[in-house]
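Lecture 7 notes: from sequence to structure.
We start with the chain below.
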Amino acid sequence: MDHAINPQIESPLFTRIPPEVRNQIFKFALTAYEDPASRKYSSAAYYYRPGYTRPHRIDTELLLTCRRVYWETYKFPASINEHTSWYSRAPPNIKKNHLSVDNRRCSLVRRRDLRTVHVFAQQIWLEGDGFAGFTGLWQYARPTTLVITLRHSDWWWWEDEAPLTFDPKQEGKASPEKNRSRSAAFALESWGNQFRKIKGLQRLQLELETVANKKQELDAIVDRADGWEFPLANDRILHLNKSKTRRTGWIGTRLTEYRENSEYDEGEDGEVTVGSQSHPDIHSTSNTDAGDSSTSTGIVGSQHVPVTSGASILRHTNDQEDEPTKAKRVLEAAGVIFDVFDDGGSVKRLPAHRKSVYYIVTLIWEA
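Predicted structure tokens for the same chain:
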């Protein structure tokens, strides 16, 4: 210990509590959590999901108590927490869509202390130049775990209910006509061949999400994943650990194409409020002229016509069960475990036609 640091020999924290127990206490105190004092995200936002209903916070005030505490804990905020990067459609409190490791103000010590990195990636970014550039950032920071999440709204043409295509062995946009066989090698510029740049990588976690009625399409992709053995540096390989595959689900707000603005609030009676304008949910499937869809507010032209994603628009039926409840029951019968999280009742209060049932498969590869 540095001679300038007071050993705090009069404090029971340092004299009576063993270091290993003290470290567990410090880690618990420095673990990130959803901040209940912050403004809740809209349940209709692209980034809203279990574990991401509010901004996350780390209480670093502990490091300011004394030099002894700082000396024992300064690495923990970086080393024990998952550091999240959003490549498109980030929460409004996120100023940049990249990690602090890509920020020159981030100290070298903090970069080296990173252990787990979580990337929310659109498929176009993953299969394009974005992911290749991302993996090249790790000259100094060497995380051991990388988590990649593709949300329902991250797939190619999700708003048009396009078939799911996914293949890390292909270069560029995955094509179902080019599905690589189990024995096929990774193309040199494929995104699956980029992990070798992250020198200390030991674990890859891939989370693939879609809507309930596309379960069969996603399961077909998962079946092929057994043939994906990702090459790492120094001739190491990431192998799929089938025993750790998890299938989960959750019920959330039905996403629509025009909801691009991340700072709108939910109105009442199935309306979505963007700024000061209120746009009722539209239940018709008629082809309305939507005009220019490039506006920064996410409103499609002047018609405010949402394009329903993942399934045809759910309507009220005479059955006792609504469609989301039926979909949940079918998935649970197939062994899917549903996340239970506190959303303040915002989704529960929605009518059935404004809900979607989301299906997630989590795959884990280990070196």
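Points to note: Residues 19-29 form the longest helix (11 residues). Confidence is low (pLDDT under 50) at residues 97-106, 258-318.
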